[in-house]
Specification:
By secondary structure, the protein is of the alpha/beta class. The protein is built from 16 helices and eleven strands. The structure holds glutamine. The site of glutamine (GLN) has 13 residues, from loops.
Length: 485
């Protein structure tokens, strides 16, 4: 029998409905893989009994032809999603032992579509980071690592690594400035951050509320489409979730892209862009052209401010969101002689270095006297960045860029550790899209000379994930590969 864990969701669905294997057998093979690959540190909590129980229910639904869209599909869930009665920590000391009494809307939707949950996935603490090294559970190893361990990217590093290593059929991720796309690129898998408002944020532990979005990480474009169809939709519990209808994304895959205009932003040819990535960027444009698309140059002139703007707005919102962890109403407590001392002790012990750095930057830029100079200014430039995209999309339908300026780097890389700015620079191609609230998908385009995967990013207009999926499926078919080589 073929290894069930190497199947895509679409293939597994077909195998289940043809009774080639049962939902329990499928889940058991993932559980075995999860156990065999524990050294990758992708899961921070395994829930095999729960997954098997859910698989049994799925099988009876499949038998009676009453299964949902993801009936019997085993998933991994990023530890930022509150899962009812399953510990949810955001990989932070301050939430260790927190067992939510409720389910996030996105995971509730996945459950009601019939998916089963193998466990919670590792991530950067509170989703702050780009290498998964800020987790209290330690770093995840990228399954593509050769002699030295490489990072899987972050913050959804556990999600991307688990999908790449066939430890789950697909996973949930969240993306505030690149956290779905960058790890997908580093691990050779596919992930989409949908338009801001497409998925409900209810029950997702907040980092930066005007940027946070949930999305899937999966093996293929089709699997991402299937997952996103289930995860999306308006939710009365999140006033920023959109009422715009959710299309059947999987319907547009493979459709002709003749006449589609693909924009190449000239400002993304940044210094330090790896030559091999630049080569694949040209190749991807060429492939789309051969398939009938038209390549046009576009300009996003405010790109150079994107990182500065993001690293003001995201920490500002984070410092406000994280104020709730005071050791009193919420989060772990470390006692002190006075109330103030208890706050200080709890937060000192509960938060890691990167989170503290963000809180300090955030409170600084929001403080009286600096608010106008930093925060308000950043909001104004954010508007200009969004306007850049609105103007560019008058000339094109989808924008094509690399996902990251480099391939995966080593765990503990000195240049990243000694200067956090270097880590932040890795987000150069992803943050502006988050600031503009647009959908963007990263897919694996090829390997570099060290045999490591590189990703391409396709960006769409707000709520036009369909064009992104359409172009991505064509590119995937012509250029991509599947699985760790
Ligand atoms: N790397 C970025 C940061 O550290 C993005 C994180 C994210 O998207 N959650 O803020």
């Amino acid at each position: 029998m073929t290894d069930l864990t190497s199947l895509t969701i679409a293939e597994a669905k077909s195998g289940l409905s043809k009774k080639e294997f049962s939902a329990v057998e499928l889940t058991e093979s993932y559980i075995k893989n999860m156990e065999n690959k524990r050294s990758l540190n992708a899961f921070v909590k395994e829930t095999p009994e729960l997954a098997l129980e859910q698989a049994k229910i799925s099988q009876s639904k499949i038998n009676s032809d009453s299964g949902g869209k993801l009936e019997g599909i085993p998933l991994g869930i990023k530890d930022l999603f509150c899962t009812k009665e399953i510990e949810t920590t955001a990989c932070s000391q301050i939430l260790k032992g927190f067992v939510p009494p409720y389910e996030s809307t996105v995971t509730a939707k996945l459950l009601s579509a019939g998916a089963n949950f193998l466990g919670k996935l590792n991530m950067d603490e509170f989703a702050m980071g780009g290498s998964n090294e800020t987790s209290i559970f330690g770093p995840v190893t990228n399954p593509w690592s050769k002699a030295t361990p490489l990072v899987p990217g972050g913050s959804s590093g556990g999600s991307a690594a688990a999908v790449a290593a066939d430890m789950c059929a697909a996973a949930t991720g969240t993306d505030t400035g690149g956290s779905i796309r960058q790890p997908s690129s580093f691990c050779g898998v596919t992930g989409i951050k949908p338009t801001y408002g497409r998925c409900s944020r209810y029950g997702i532990i907040a980092f930066a509320s005007s940027l946070d979005q949930a999305g899937p990480i999966a093996k293929t474009v089709e699997d991402c489409a299937l997952m996103l169809e289930v995860m999306s939709g308006h939710d009365s519990k999140d006033s920023t979730s959109s009422k715009i209808m959710v299309p059947e994304f999987s319907k547009v895959l493979g459709q002709n892209i003749k006449g589609m205009r693909i924009g190449i932003p000239k400002e993304y040819r940044v210094d330090g862009l790896n030559q091999e990535i630049a080569g694949y960027w040209d190749k991807a444009a060429q492939i789309l052209k051969e398939q009938g698309a038209e390549i046009v140059e576009v300009s996003l002139p405010h790109t150079k401010y994107a990182l500065a703007v993001y690293y003001i707005i995201a920490p500002a919102e984070a410092s406000s969101n994280l104020a709730r962890y005071d050791g009193l109403r919420y989060g772990n407590r470390v006692n002190g002689d006075t109330l103030d001392e208890m706050y200080v002790n709890s937060r000192t012990a509960g938060f890691g270095r990167e989170v503290k750095r963000r809180i300090m930057i955030g409170t600084y830029v929001l403080s009286a006297g600096y608010y106008d100079a930093y925060y308000i200014k950043a909001q104004k430039v954010r508007r200009l960045i969004r306007q850049d995209f609105i103007d560019a999309f008058k000339k094109c339908d989808v924008i094509l860029t690399p996902t990251t300026p480099t391939a995966a780097f080593a765990v503990g890389d000195k240049t990243m550790q000694q200067n956090p700015i270097n880590m932040w620079l890795n987000d150069i191609f992803t943050v502006s899209i988050s600031l503009a609230g647009l959908p963007a998908l990263s897919l694996p385009i090829g390997l570099n000379s060290q045999g490591l995967p590189l990703g391409m990013q396709l960006i769409g207009r707000a709520f036009d994930e369909e064009s992104v999926f359409k172009a991505s499926s064509v590119l995937e078919k012509e250029a991509c590969f599947r699985g760790v080589k």
